[in-house]
Amino acid sequence: MQPDVTVDSYAFLPRAFRSIFEAAPHFDHEPIWAPFDKPLSEARIGLLTSAGIFVSDQQPPFDVERERNEPTWGDPTMRVIPNSVSQADLDATHLHINTTDLLTDMNVALPIERLNEMAATGIIGSASPEHFSVMGFQSEGADVWRTTTAPEIAARCHAADIDALILAPA
Length: 170
Fold this sequence. Notes:
The protein has one domain (40-168). It is of the alpha/beta class. It has helices spanning 15-22, 64-69, 100-104, 112-120, 142-159; strands at 44-49, 53-55, 78-82, 90-92, 126-127, 130-134, 164-168.
């Protein structure tokens, strides 16, 4: 039996914001659902993290300076993370999570090594050649995320023949 673990998803938010994000979401549409008919052992799987991870010597960090000045804004851009990336190549910028653990072990928020192990043992068909990173905590940037960032991620998934994208929330 697993021990109970308490996770406080709001620990790094300003206290005034907690009640806003604890409220149940209200959608103007029904959830979108697509059946997954392909056997997992034949599927190409990609990852999407909301931890603000980026390749340190190749990509700019996420914009936390603007967020410090505008607390309801979050950087709505994305970074493409190659499947071959090493831990030493990664960094993270995020004002709402403690990045210490994921900078020690990327698998905490971007489980590329675990995904590659599943591919090597045949649990999944293959890992995607690229994965995606965004900075979670979107409020004011959510429209850009919906109209630009998410469609770009979807297009890259289609181009790379990714069958499923696993959200690894931070």
